[in-house]
Amino acid sequence: MTSLMVIVLCIGLLIGLGVIEKQRNEENIKKIDLRININGTRGKTTVTRLVTGVLQAVGYQVIGKTTGTESRIIYWDREEEEEIERPPSGPNIFEQISVIEKARKRGANALVLECMAVNPEYQDVYSNEMFQSNITAIVNVFEDHMDILGPTNDQIAWAYAKTIPKNGLVVISDDSYKDYFIEVAQERNCRVKVIDEPGVSQELLERFDYLVFPNNLAVPLAIAEELGIDRDTAIKGMLQADPDPGIMQLFEIGEPIDQKVILAYAFAANEPTSTMLIYEELKEDGLIGESPIILINCREDRSDRTKLFTKDFIGQIKDARVIAIGQNTGIIEKAIRSGRVKVKDYLSLEGKSLEDIYMTLMTYASGEVVLGIGNIHGVGEDFFAYLDENNLWQRRRMN
Question: Among the CATH numbers 3.40.1190.10, 3.50.30.60, 3.30.200.20, 3.10.350.10, which is that of 3-240?
Answer without folding.
Answer: 3.40.1190.10
